[in-house]
C-alpha cells in the first residue's frame, strides 16, 4: 500500500512537473506571440500614421483647391451678376426702343389701313359702273346665245347646237357671279335639261349615207326598155309599116297615131311618172340624186313625212327605171332601211330662257337708270 501510495505520489509529481513545463512553454509562446503582435501593431500604427499624414495632405490640397475654385466661382458670379446687370440695362433700353418703334409702326399701319379703306371704297365706287356694265354685257351675250339656240332649234332643228349655245350662255352668266342672275340661270338649266331628254337622231350619219347613195347613182344600170310613141335613143320614132298614100283610111290612122304620140292624157288618180324618159340616163340619174338630196334636206329640217315619202318615191324609181341587178337591189334595201327610221323628234320650246333673259336685261336697265 505504501509502495502504491509512493507510486501515485511519483506519478502526481511527474504530472505536475509536466504540467508546469507545458505551462511554461505555453507562456513562452504567448510571450513571443504578444511580442510579434505588438511589433505588427507598431508597424500598422506607423503605416496608419503615414496614411493619415498622406490623407491629411490630400485633404489639405483638396481644401485649398476647393477654396480657390470657390473664390474663382465667387469672382465669376460677381462678373456674371455685373454682366446680367449690364445686359438688363441694355435690354431695357432695347425694349424701350422697340416699344417706340412699335408705336410708330402701329400708327403707320393704322394710317396705311385707313388709306387702304379709302382706296378700296374709291375702287368700289369706280368699279360699280364697270360691274354693272359687265353684268349687262354678260346678260346681253347670254340673250344672244339663247336666241340663237332657239332659232337654230326652230329653223334647223339642231339639238346639239342649241345645247351648246345654252351651255355657253349659262357659263357666261356664271362668270359674273351676280345673285340677280339666279332666275335666268334656272330657266337656262330647265331648257338644257329638256333638250338633253330629246331622243338623239344620228342625222349626220343618215345624211352621209344619203350622200353616199346619191354618189352611187351614176354606177347603177338603167332599164333600157323603150316606151311606145317616144323617141328612141337615136332620137327617131319606132318604125312603122309603109303607108299607102292612096289609102285615105290608112293615112288618117297614121296621122292619128302621130297625134296620140304627141299628147298624153292621164287620170288624176293615177301615179305620176317621171317627166323625163328613162332612156335619157343622165337626166334620170340627176332626178334620182335630187330625190335623195330632197330627203336629206327633209331630214335636216326634221320633216319626217317628206323624208319618208321622198325615199319611197326613190325606191319606186329604182324599181321601175333601173335594171334588176345587185347594186340596184342593194340601193333599194338601203333606201328601205333609211325610210323606216323615225327621224322626227318632238323638240321643246326655249321661250322660257329667252323671256327670262329679256326680263333680266330690262330690269338691269331700269336699275341703272334709277341709280
CATH topology of the domain at 118-198 and 351-370: Four Helix Bundle (Hemerythrin (Met), subunit A)
Quote the beta fraction.
under 5%
Q: What is the CATH architecture term of the domain at 118-198 and 351-370?
A: Up-down Bundle
SS-derived structural category: mainly alpha
What is the arithmetic mean of pLDDT? 78
Rg is 67 Å
- In N-to-C order, the SSE pattern is HHHHHHHHH
CATH class of the domain at 118-198 and 351-370: Mainly Alpha
Alpha plus pi helix count: 9
Give the overall shape, derived from the CA principal axes: elongated
Largest beta sheet, briefly? none
User: How many β-strand runs?
Assistant: 0
Which regions are unreliable across 5 or more consecutive residues at pLDDT < 50?
A: 225-239, 261-276
* Proportion in helices: over 70%
Give a verbal description of the structure:
The chain is mainly α. Among the domains are: 118-198 and 351-370, Up-down Bundle (Four Helix Bundle (Hemerythrin (Met), subunit A)), CATH 1.20.120; 201-225 and 272-345, no CATH class. It is 78% helix and 0% strand. The chain has nine helices and no strands. Helix 2 runs antiparallel to helix 3 (182-196). The relative contact order is 0.08.
Can you give me a brief rundown of this structure?
Among the domains are: 118-198 and 351-370, Up-down Bundle (Four Helix Bundle (Hemerythrin (Met), subunit A)), CATH 1.20.120; 201-225 and 272-345, no CATH class. The chain is mostly helical and 371 residues long. Helices cover 78% and strands 0% of the residues.
Amino acid at each position: 500500500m505504501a509502495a502504491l501510495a509512493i507510486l501515485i505520489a511519483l506519478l502526481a509529481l511527474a504530472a505536475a512537473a509536466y504540467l508546469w513545463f507545458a505551462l511554461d512553454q505555453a507562456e513562452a509562446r504567448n510571450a513571443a506571440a504578444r511580442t510579434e503582435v505588438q511589433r505588427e501593431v507598431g508597424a500598422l500604427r506607423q503605416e496608419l500614421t503615414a496614411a493619415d499624414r498622406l490623407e491629411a495632405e490630400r485633404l489639405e490640397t483638396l481644401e485649398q483647391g476647393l477654396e480657390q475654385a470657390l473664390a474663382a466661382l465667387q469672382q465669376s458670379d460677381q462678373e456674371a451678376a455685373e454682366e446680367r446687370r449690364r445686359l438688363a440695362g441694355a435690354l431695357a433700353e432695347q425694349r424701350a426702343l422697340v416699344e417706340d418703334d412699335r408705336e410708330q409702326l402701329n400708327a403707320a399701319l393704322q394710317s396705311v389701313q385707313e388709306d387702304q379703306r379709302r382706296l378700296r371704297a374709291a375702287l368700289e365706287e369706280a368699279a360699280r359702273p364697270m360691274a354693272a356694265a359687265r353684268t349687262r354685257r354678260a346678260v346681253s351675250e347670254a340673250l344672244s346665245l339663247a336666241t340663237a339656240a332657239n332659232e337654230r332649234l326652230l329653223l334647223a332643228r339642231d339639238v346639239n347646237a342649241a345645247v351648246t349655245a345654252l351651255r355657253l350662255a349659262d357659263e357666261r352668266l356664271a362668270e359674273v357671279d351676280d345673285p340677280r342672275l339666279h332666275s335666268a340661270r334656272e330657266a337656262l338649266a330647265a331648257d338644257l335639261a329638256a333638250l338633253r331628254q330629246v331622243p338623239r337622231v344620228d342625222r349626220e350619219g343618215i345624211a352621209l349615207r344619203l350622200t353616199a347613195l346619191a354618189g352611187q347613182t351614176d354606177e347603177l344600170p338603167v332599164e333600157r326598155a323603150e316606151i311606145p310613141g317616144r323617141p328612141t335613143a337615136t332620137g327617131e320614132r319606132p318604125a312603122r309599116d309603109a303607108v299607102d298614100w292612096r289609102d285615105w283610111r290608112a293615112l288618117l290612122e297614121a296621122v292619128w297615131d302621130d297625134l296620140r304620140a304627141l299628147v298624153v292624157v292621164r287620170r288624176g288618180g293615177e301615179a305620176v311618172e317621171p317627166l323625163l324618159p328613162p332612156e335619157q340616163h343622165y337626166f334620170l340619174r340627176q332626178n334620182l340624186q335630187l330625190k335623195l338630196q330632197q330627203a336629206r334636206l327633209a331630214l335636216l329640217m326634221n320633216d319626217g313625212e317628206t323624208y319618208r315619202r321622198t325615199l319611197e318615191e326613190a325606191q319606186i324609181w329604182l324599181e321601175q327605171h333601173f335594171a334588176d341587178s345587185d347594186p340596184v337591189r342593194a340601193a333599194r334595201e338601203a333606201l328601205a332601211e333609211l325610210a323606216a327610221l323615225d327621224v322626227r323628234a318632238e323638240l321643246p320650246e326655249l321661250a322660257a330662257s329667252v323671256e327670262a333673259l329679256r326680263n333680266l336685261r330690262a330690269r338691269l336697265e331700269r336699275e341703272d337708270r334709277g341709280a
